[in-house]
Design goal:
Number of strands of chain A: 16
Structural class of chain A: alpha+beta
Oligomer: homodimer
Strand order of the largest sheet of chain A: 1-5-6-11-10-9-7-8
Distance between the termini of chain A: 47 Å
Largest interface: A-B, 99 and 99 residues
Largest sheet of chain A: 8 strands, mixed
Radius of gyration of chain A: 27 Å
Helix content of chain A: 40-55%
């Protein structure tokens, strides 16, 4: 063939070698497993949607990042999150769904951002949401963190804390100090507290016209800390009777109570009054989740309560609550910082190695017996020397190799080699081999 | 909010209600399970690639179907199959992979075809391939149908037959009758035998200049049938000594022998000399798979052997063999023709129903105990009447409902209701309930 094309992928797109992909899939499967354990229903919306539908709400920064293009007469876009497709789906199928509608979706989304470390243009989001019609009780605000805790425990990536807050507390507080017309600005500034510190926040608050008494109140408010119950007590002790504020504090107290009923470990959550979340549609409970020993990773799982998911598509009011795990980003960070390490090079538990072609039939029947017993089994079928065959088993780090020679074939046995360093090799019956492999899985 | 956008999706895109999605995912998981059982490694290439890389080989019809667009300075395309990305991946990572490289990928691909029934613009392909360096022994041509048979058996959609052929037999035969320069045309025409019949094929063969003696030979050749061994005997009996033909017959005979060694059931495969496969890169064994009782669905799983996967990217010769299941299309056909029916409306095995909020804590602890024992459990948390709660359980067809009232909470018991028609309800200890649910899963 003629001129070669250099094989390469685009910047900002994650593609893994098999070893990392196996680990990635383990993460994916664990998250999915927990979502399903709580009864969330699967959904798989199209990757491509009509721009008119997908961008009903978008604008500004988001819209610039969209992969948007024409095909035939259609103006199309790739989904940039899983929330807008959910809104569209629920509005479309309202009469066919049962509410509360609990769904999960774990799919790729696309954002043409300027590529930078840890940012991807194509990445998996793993979302759960609970959608109600007209109302949705507060207890669902407690089920969501229960799921988060279960997910993060199953991922086994160290201690974590779900930080929670309620937008009404923030909104109400700022109304009480006469800053209602600047709530969005103030929230945006507070959101940066961890990034730019109290001085930075003060500077920005001055720039939007806050006087020093107000700034003092704001900084005092956001510095309320301590255990869950004392934060709630401190909030009540502020003596603010602004209605939204009072509602927010009550909601937060109720949610915390329910979280305890859900058995969420006290060590795994705390109130953090600085959390506002960037998106403007959150209206109540909001969450961020930090890995305690790796706070530099930022929030690995965020979300909250919104009053009206489907406003762009229907008049019916559909409140909901949900969270999202950015799995591609999380995984890439965990690998980069060596918090996790990809160790399994093979998907199979065993590599069956026929010493030569004369024992092929028996080797294949052994492999088949393993598979029927639920053991993932590969067979090495190249005609190479034993040294190269063992090298393949080593390189792909199969937990076990099963070596079949004349003797094994004649006597209906297998030589089972534990491939761990210093692992032993023993000649066993098929049943014994199956037992050993299963016992050590 | 103002003007509403009509919530809708594009024609030619599959989107399922939860009940169908649950069944779709069962299919997906079963296929993946079998692929992994044989040790195929997972891969997940980007959805978006550089057009220059992805379309190195494309042209004509394929290129017209591509979703291609510019973003910044990049000319981008959505993948239209999983084979080209595999070729690019193998060429890119040759030194990091171990060969034979066995990989599976089950991802969406995109083709902007004119929408028609059963055709999708976005659909899942479920591919396996085995790639060698320079050579790959014929025995892998037998492993592939072994996997297909295992997949289709696990899907439980009725009897099926893997039809196999070898392109060298076809090519060699046509060379032997002096039609080498028209092989592509002739193969294309023969490929339509089932669709347009012998008359149609004759007409088309005349139109490309075949005389009647040649046409007779062709039709005689493609009508060779019977069991596997007699077809091979008939091929040998033709007395053709054209080298490619002889090689092809020998390869086919060898592959059939290996398939028997793999334990492939004789009832699940046969030789079909009319199979050529459309794609021009197949060079040896080719497969198509039909559901015996639903031949109108066409081939549900096709593929074959190719000599040079990576020719557009590297000088290194990389032969391979693989197959693809078009899951979206298959699933849609199975549903449309009622061969399968989506019955499970819930992902969870149990719905826990607290009679009122006073038993919420106990209900949540019951749910938690179920989950810890591997039972997928949803809890109904809306404050509605019992009738509406049971209606929800019915509508989503949970296998079991667990009803918790004051008595149950006080005595640490649960009321377990089997939701099947005529199902009984009994008051049990938690351990008894867990046992019953697990026994009936």
């Amino acid at each position: 063939m003629g001129e070669k094309v250099t094989p390469r992928i685009l910047q900002g797109f994650m593609e893994l070698l098999p070893k990392e992909q196996i680990l990635f899939n383990e993460f994916y499967d664990k998250i999915r497993g927990v979502y399903e354990k709580y009864g969330f229903l699967p959904l798989d919306t199209p990757t491509i949607e009509l721009s008119e539908v997908l961008l009903a709400k978008a604008g500004g920064e988001t819209e610039k990042q969209i992969y948007r293009f024409a095909k035939g007469d259609n103006d199309l876009s790739l989904r940039f999150d899983l929330t807008v497709p959910l809104a569209r789906y629920v509005a479309m199928h309202e009469n066919e769904l049962s509410f509360p509608f609990k769904r999960y979706q774990m799919s790729k989304v696309f954002r043409g951002e300027r590529p930078q470390k840890g940012r991807f243009r194509e990445f998996y989001q793993c979302d759960i949401d609970v959608i109600g019609v007209e109302t949705l009780p507060l207890i669902y605000d407690a089920e969501i963190p229960a799921v988060i805790c279960d997910v993060l425990t199953s991922l086994n990536i160290g201690k974590f804390t779900v930080r929670l807050n309620n937008r009404k507390i923030l909104g109400g507080f700022f109304a009480s100090i006469g800053l209602s017309d600047k709530i969005t600005d103030v929230l945006r500034i507070i959101d940066k507290l961890e990034k730019i510190g109290a001085d930075g926040v003060t500077k920005e608050l001055i720039s939007i016209g806050a006087d020093s008494a107000t700034i003092e109140k704001i900084l005092g408010f956001v510095s309320i800390c301590g255990d869950t119950d004392s934060v709630i007590a401190s909030l009540k002790a502020l003596g603010i009777d602004e209605e939204t504020f009072v509602t927010g504090v009550n909601e937060l107290e109720t949610v915390v109570g329910y979280m305890r009923a859900f058995g969420v470990n006290e060590a795994n959550f705390k109130i953090d009054l600085t959390i506002a979340r960037g998106l403007d549609y959150y209206t109540g409970t909001v969450y961020e989740t930090m890995l305690d020993e790796h706070k530099n990773l930022g929030s690995v799982c965020s979300g909250g309560r919104y009053d009206n998911l489907t406003g762009y598509y229907t008049d019916k009011k559909m409140p909901g609550i949900g969270i999202s795990i950015g799995l591609t980003r999380l995984f890439s960070q965990l690998i980069d910082t060596k918090i996790v390490e990809a160790k399994k090079g093979s998907i199979a538990d065993v590599l069956v190695i026929p010493m030569d072609n004369s024992v092929l039939g028996y080797s294949l029947s052994v492999a088949s017996a393993f598979r029927n017993d639920g053991i993932k089994t590969d067979v090495y079928l190249l005609e190479k020397g034993m040294k190269q065959k063992m090298k393949y088993a080593d390189k792909l780090s199969f937990p076990y190799a099963v070596i079949i020679g004349d003797t094994e074939a004649k006597e209906n046995l297998v030589s089972l080699k534990n491939m761990k360093e210093g692992g032993t090799q023993s000649t066993l019956s098929l049943a014994e081999a199956i037992k050993e492999i299963k016992d050590n899985k």
